[in-house]
Design goal:
With about 375 residues, the protein is α/β, with parallel strands linked by helices. The protein has 13 helices and 14 strands. The structure holds nicotinamide-adenine-dinucleotide.
Length: about 375
């Protein structure tokens, strides 16, 4: 099975944001080829995008339903679909492809309700399909190394987590219909019941849970709407209690002027702490009680072989967003290849964000909304 896998894309048409990142990330490992798409609701856009991507015209579809139906009839049907449309459509599109026997990579948030997310997870399980969610930031080498450090006990028992995903684009971009992705994110018809928590707060929840392995026990959320025209939250402060007794504070914002895409965390344990920031993704700060702090880079000898074996860009050079995305895709694609060969998948094979993490993300959004709607009451998770 040396042939590349094939895939299709729903969304990601000309002038959209994240579809092109997915395509570039997949290309980095050269193990899957884009062969079809329904890139937009506007078929003209799909045709233009497909032509630019040099796809066969007969595999450019008017809508995702037609794509799933036609592809599932082909002897060479696609191995997976990447869903990169606005939130509200993830459920129906993912469901259609799962029911057509096609593996799925879906953007976050997985759906707009927890019930929908659970349903997708069950369909994937029943149909023995692989379903990943594009929690891209857990693909960074230094994030994965942070998880190793926590697992090895380097910082002791975790006491406190301070994590943020703060940006300022909604404060800077004029609202009036200039940027479609601005419009839809703040409109419940396309975004669901949350904008900021669903859009970037879920990355914080997923990142912290990926690194620490801690589960949220309860939370208390305040969700704000600072921009007058926004119909949904554009800023949120969330207190969390974890199952081991540790505490945390998450801040997620689209109005934090001065921050472009500042996803960062500090994890504080009984023996030390680790800190990381997405805008300086190649470095990790480690402090222990009895040593001055260390700033480790990806090239440092301390980085484990499990992490280094996945490097595409050598240490001493800057690894970025595309590489992080590509790492998730590589593991997802390898799992599909292994399943196609009839082999049993191990936990290590599934070391990418799976649908179960998407379900937890949806639970997080719903619990934040419940708390915020009850005047920031503490809510059991
Ligand atoms: N993982 C990340 O880091 C990350 C970053 C950005 C966006 N996202 C997620 O990606 C998704 C898309 O966000 P975006 O910023 O790229 O949006 P966008 O508005 O830039 O692009 C959405 C695309 O989907 C197309 N589309 C909409 N409905 C469709 C349908 N039914 N069938 C086919 N195409 C359809 C639009 O025409 C457009 O091409 C969102 O769920 C968002 O939360 C994730």
């Amino acid at each position: 099975m040396s042939k590349k896998l094939t895939y299709g894309m729903v969304g990601g048409g000309k002038n959209s944001q994240i579809g092109i990142v997915h395509r570039k990330a997949i290309n980095l490992h050269n193990n899957a080829e884009l062969v079809c798409g329904a890139f937009s609701r506007d078929f003209k856009n799909t045709l233009i995008t497909g032509k630019e991507l040099k796809l066969e015209e007969k595999r450019l579809y008017r809508n995702y339903e037609e794509m799933a139906e036609e592809e599932s009839k082909r002897p060479d049907k696609i191995d997976f679909v990447s869903i990169v449309t606005p939130n509200v459509s993830h459920y129906e599109i993912a469901k259609k492809f799962l029911e057509s026997g096609i593996n799925v990579m879906c953007e976050k948030p997985l759906t707009v309700t927890l019930d929908q997310a659970n349903e997708l997870s069950n369909i994937a399980k029943n149909n023995k399909l692989i379903f990943a969610v594009a929690y891209s930031y857990t693909g960074y080498s230094m994030v994965r190394f942070a998880r190793d450090l926590v697992r090895s006990g380097k910082i002791g028992d975790i006491r406190f987590v301070n994590a943020q995903y703060i940006s300022d684009w909604m404060a800077k971009v004029p609202f009036e219909g200039k940027i479609p992705r601005h419009e839809w994110r703040s409109d419940p018809k396309f975004s669901g019941l949350s904008n900021c928590v669903a859009d970037i707060g879920v990355h914080v929840e997923n990142l912290v849970s990926f690194i620490t392995g801690l589960k949220i026990k309860s939370l208390c959320a305040r969700m704000d709407k600072f921009i007058e025209k926004n119909k949904l939250d554009d800023n949120a402060s969330i207190l969390v209690n974890f199952d081991n007794g540790a505490e945390g504070i998450y801040w997620t914002s689209q109005i934090a002027i001065g921050h472009e895409n500042n996803l960062n965390f500090g994890i504080y344990g009984t023996k030390g702490s680790i800190e990381w920031s997405q805008e300086q993704a190649n470095y990790l700060k480690i402090s222990t009680i009895d040593h001055p702090f260390l700033r480790l880079s990806r090239g440092s000898k301390e980085i484990s072989e499990y992490i280094k074996q996945d490097y595409v860009t050598p240490g001493g050079h800057q690894e970025g967003y595309i590489e992080a995305f590509a790492r998730i895709y590589e593991k997802f694609i390898n799992a599909i290849i292994k399943r196609k060969k009839g082999e049993i998948l191990t936990q290590e094979d599934l070391d990418f964000p799976t649908v179960e993490q998407g379900v937890i993300g949806m639970k997080f959004i719903e619990k934040c909304l419940e708390s915020a709607n009850k005047n920031c009451t503490w809510i059991e998770f």
